[in-house]
Amino acid sequence: EYTTGEWRHGVYMLSANKITINDFHSNDSGGDGFYIGTSTPTGFCDSIVLNNCFSDNNKRQGLSITSVKNLYVYGGKYSGTIGTNPQFGIDIEPNLATNFIENVNLIGVKTSNNSGGGISVVPNQLVNTISINITDCISIDDRMGLFFTNPHDSIKLSGNITVNNFKHFNTRGSGIILNGWNEFAPKIILKNCYGENVGYTLSGTPNRCGIYFSVEVSSWGTWFGNVEIINYELNDT
User: Fold this and answer.
1) What is the per-residue pLDDT for 26?
2) Alpha helix (H) ranges present in the chain?
3) What is the spatial distance between Cα 91 and Cα 158, in angstroms, rounded to a whole number?
4) How far apart are CA 66 and CA 41, in angstroms?
C-alpha cells in the first residue's frame, strides 16, 4: 500500500519545530523520502536539520521542501527517484504564495540517478522573501543537475539564491537549466561551479548544454536576467 498514489512519504513534517534527524534512510516509498512543509496557508517548519540522511528509490521526490525557515541539510544522498513527476532528488517548491522558503541551506549534499533531476528551485507565486544557499553539492547521473524556473509574471520576488562550488557529472540532459528567469525573479549567483560530460545518455535532446537559458516571452516577461555567473568550467571527456 505504500507504493500507490504519490503521498506515501517516508518522513512527513508539517509545521514542525526544532527537529534534527541523523543518519536516517528513507527508501522505496510511494511518495517522497522526506517532506518538509505545512498544512496551513501561513504555516511553516522551523529549525530543521537533516544530517547525513539518505533517500533512494522513492516515487515522487527524494526531499520536498515547501514551507520552512532555517533548514540545514548536511551531506547525505538523495537518489533514484522515479515514478511520478517532478522526480527530483531535492525539490524546493512552495505550494502556496504565503508559504516560506527562508534560510534554506543545502551543504555537501549528493544527488544521483534521479529521473527528473538533482535539485530544483520553483518559487511559484511566493510573495515572501526567498533565501537559499546551495554549497559544495554534487550531481551524478541525474537527468539534469540544477533546475531553476520562475513562473512569476506580476510580482517581484525579493531575496537571493546562491550556488557555490556545485559540480555536475554525466547529466543526461543539461547540467544547469534556468527557465524563464526574468525581472520578477530573485537574484541567482552561480559561483565556482564545474560540469563534466553533459548530455551523457539522453540522445536527441536539444538542450544538452553546460548551462541552458530559456526565455518564455509570451507568459513570463520579455527579457532574461537576475543571474550572475562567476567561474564556471565545463569539460567533456
Assistant:
1) 97
2) none
3) 20
4) 11
* 162, three cell numbers: 546562491
Grid cell in block for residue 213: 537559458
Q: CA–CA separation, 167 vs 68, rounded Å?
A: 26
Counted residue by residue, the chain has a size of 237
Q: What is the largest CA-CA distance in the chain?
A: 49
Do 198 and 210 form a contact (C-beta atoms < 8 A)? yes
Contact indicator for 184, 152 with CB cutoff of 8 Å: yes
Q: Side chain identity at 89, as an amino acid letter?
A: G
- Grid coordinates belonging to 191: 559561483
Give residue 9's pLDDT band: very low, low, confident or very high (50, 70, 90): very high
Name the pTM for this structure. 0.94
Q: Which amino acid is at 223?
A: W
**Burial of 111 per CB tally in 10 Å (0-12, 13-18, 19+):** buried
Any idea which residue has 539534469 for its cell?
144
Four-point Cα dihedral 2, 16, 117, 161, nearest 10 = 170
Closest CA relative to residue 133, chosen from 111, 164, 157: 164
For residues 217 and 189, the answer to whether their CB atoms sit within 8 Å is: no
Band (pLDDT 50/70/90 cuts) for residue 214 is confident
Confidence of residue 206 (pLDDT cuts 50, 70, 90): low
- Residue 204: its pLDDT value, please? 58
- Cell 498544512 sits on residue: 39
- Spatial distance between the Cα atoms of 52 and 64, rounded to a whole number of angstroms: 16
| N- to C-terminal Cα separation, the chain | 44
d(CA 56, CA 64): 13
